[in-house]
Amino acid sequence: MSISGGTDEAARSDSALTDAEVQRLREDFPILQTQVNGHPLAYLDSGATSQRPLAVLDAERDFASTLNAAVHRGAHTLAAEATEVFEDARATVARFVGADDGEIVWTSNATEALNLIAYSISNAASGRGGAAAERFRLREGDEIVTTEMEHHANLIPWQELAARTGATLRVIPLDDDGALRLDVAAEIIGPRTRLIAVTHVSNVLGVINPVSTVVSLAREVGALVVLDACQSAPHLPLDVRALDVDFAVLSGHKMLGPTGIGALYGRRELLEAMPPFLTGGSMITTVTTTEAEYLPPPQRFEAGTQRVSQAVALAAAIDYLTAVGMPRIAAHEAAFGRRLVDGLAAIDGVRVLGAGIDLPRVGLASFDVAGIHSHDVGQFLDDRGIAVRVGHHCAQPLHRRLGIISSTRASTYLYTTEAEVDAVIDGVQAAIDFFRRGA
Ligand SMILES: Cc1ncc(COP(=O)(O)O)c(C=O)c1O
Fold first, then answer.
1. Would you say residue 1 lies in a domain?
2. Among 321, 353, 377, which residue terminates a domain?
């Protein structure tokens, strides 16, 4: 990695990355040197998936070239070494989020991690897991609470869980700006609430939600808290113990890692009591033709052959992020988030979603351009080599609440330059000029 820890840089441990540092970081990302539509690529779609530095690409390739073997299965040397690096990678994720190694379960992405929790709970509801799993049993009259701003991945699994168990799904609404109505949350969360699922950072608004308020409400009534950390783990220092959540999920591909790997954090005593979701090889101690005994967590939740090279590459991504410094990445993102929001909101005809919310943010802004479809805005920017996301960003209820069906989203990361942020803002103004002229 090219960023160095010289004295000056070390002294700036909480300050935003300098332009020179970002330029040096960019050299580590081969894709950022490419051209798109005759322009240097300006990648403003890290909220969907991030780009990978050489250290991550090399880690995956090195594993495949020198260590590839199935983990927790073979007695041969390669299998033992592969198992060791796989478990080291788990420890890296655990350290990164402030958890113990045994509290991290590998999944293929955050969506699978959320479904794992929901299906384990409904397995408990149907009597699996015995007395230990009693605390997860949902019944008619019980309530699951989520919010109107969730990504579909943190909404549909709870709709399905409610349908399977007879529990009721309740939704914390948003105000006209898109902020969580915490006053209403305090009314909704009550003695019937068994589980609350909330996103740490909205993938549409870019705001960092006041999770501690939701956790306090949950603690008052003994409800479990599931945190969707997909958009926070890549961009902020994350400490699941300090946040006092029961579960948290993240996706490797949003934090410089490969696709196909994600992680679930679960408080140890909860994972120990939860029945498995997927069953099969590698998660058992004894099997007869009629029944099976399961391993303790995390292996109990890791049925089948594991994604080892992806786990190792995710650990390399975390090492990279840690070396740059999460507080510095957060400061970089906060500055660019503000620049995007202010620059876009100043354009006549542009409505930045959540612009009025007074909360800290990451480097992500979604916006609606009056009279121009988000797909046209995205296409116009793409012609300039600028990659953004268009559509509903898997958050249809949030868009519906704000009175629109789609938006354009620009999202930054540690490799984003100020010039790229300004190119988005200039590009949106140019798109408006172009389409209005044509109208
Ligand atoms: C807030 C949030 N939650 C969950 C997800 C789902 O992540 P994945 O598709 O990697 O499972 C995303 C991805 O866009 C997201 O932004």
1. no
2. 321
Assess if residue 95 is contained within a domain: yes
For ligand 1, is residue 199 a contact (CB within 6 Å)? yes
Report the pLDDT value the prediction gives residue 439, as an integer from 0 to 100. 57
Give the CATH number, domain containing residue 46. 3.90.1150.10
For residue 12, what pLDDT is reported? Answer: 60
Note the residue count of the chain.
439
With a cut of 50, which residues of the chain have pLDDT below it?
1-11
DSSP string, 228-258: E-TTTTTTS---HHHHT-SEEEEEGGGTTS-
Q: What is the pLDDT of residue 9?
A: 47
> Encoding tokens for residue 124?
């408990």
Residue 246 sits in the same domain as residue 340 = no
CB 416 near ligand 1, within 6 Å:
no
- Residue 348 is given by DSSP the state T
Ligand 1 atom closest to 153 (CA) = 4
CA distances from 110 to 95, 117, 253, 420 (A): 18, 11, 10, 29
C-alpha gyration radius of the chain:
22
- Final residue of a structural domain among 321, 337, 356: 321
Q: One of 182, 292, 394, 430 is an active-site residue; which one?
A: 394
**Domain range spanning residue 162?**
60-321
Q: What is the pLDDT of residues 27-71, one digit of tens each?
A: 999 999 999 999 999 999 999 999 999 999 999 999 999 999 999
Q: Cis (ω within 30 of 0) for the bond into 298?
A: yes
Q: What is the pLDDT of residues 355-381, one digit of tens each?
A: 999 999 999 999 999 999 999 999 999
Same domain (yes/no): 216, 345: no
